[in-house]
Amino acid sequence: MGEFVLGMAGATGAPYAIRTLEGLIEAGHDVSAVISDAGRQVLKIEMDTTLSGDPEADAADLLDLANVEGPGRLTVFTINDYEASIASGSHPTDGMAVVPCSMGTLARIANGISSNLLERAADVTLKERRKLILVPREMPLGLIHLRNMVTLTEAGAEIIPPSPGFYKRPESVQDLVDSVAGRILDRLGVESSFLKRWTGAEEME
After folding, report:
1. Domain ranges of the chain
2. Is 176 helix (H, G, I), strand (E, B) or coil?
3. Where are the beta strands (DSSP E) in 39-145?
4. Number of helical (H) and strand (E) elements in the chain, helices listed first
5. Alpha-carbon distance 20 to 53, whole Å?
6. Nearest CA among 59, 15, 28 for reference residue 190
7. What is 3-193's CATH topology?
């Protein structure tokens, strides 16, 4: 199967990242993950998970959190590992998603500032004309935020705000998370078991 890069920055929305990870691994894709320091803090706050900083241990903890064993594989890189495969455009991947994406991370990617491996991997994804999906979480959006999103869209990235749909009448927080994660996976070209597609109003009758 393929290989995708999953970045996690320091914005609220860790459950979206974990569900996206689950979908990729469950579909048989390999995942190269890189988490910012702030992203690790968000994981601790929102999902009561403390990562040790050891890549192998972190991979095991993330897979346990996602409650998935395979068939895809997960590799975790530290935030400043510039020798990582995903730091080079010569390493082929099928795309990258930054879930969630802080506005600081979004701004640096928009302006080609690679201050860590997450941002470098996103820069590589753009320059190699691969699919880059950013899931920014902020409200309200300021003019600078909006302009950075326009810059990224013009450069070929896709902006997917974590805005769950209610037309399927969600019954739980997990349903809302699935609505967003399912769309992220859909835009990456990955089928997931939890994306509920709209088939018409008659299904609600």
Report:
1. 3-193
2. helix
3. 74-77, 96-101, 132-136
4. 7, 6
5. 21
6. 28
7. Rossmann fold (3.40.50)
Length in residues, the chain: 205
How far, in Å, CA of 110 to CA of 107, rounded? Answer: 5
Tokens representing 53 are 């900083």
One-letter amino acid for residue 69 of the chain: E
Token reading at 44: 């601790």
Quick one: DSSP state of residue 161? -
CA 138 – CA 160 distance, rounded (Å): 12
Q: Residue written as tokens 């769950």?
A: 164
| Maximum distance among all Cα pairs of the chain, rounded to whole angstroms | 55
pLDDT tens by residue, the chain, 205 residues:
899 999 999 999 999 999 999 999 999 999 999 999 999 999 999 999 999 999 999 999 999 999 999 999 999 999 999 999 999 999 999 999 999 999 999 999 999 999 999 999 999 999 999 999 999 999 999 999 999 999 999 999 999 999 998 988 899 999 999 999 999 999 999 999 888 888 886 666 5
- Distance CA(200)–CA(119), nearest Å, equals 40
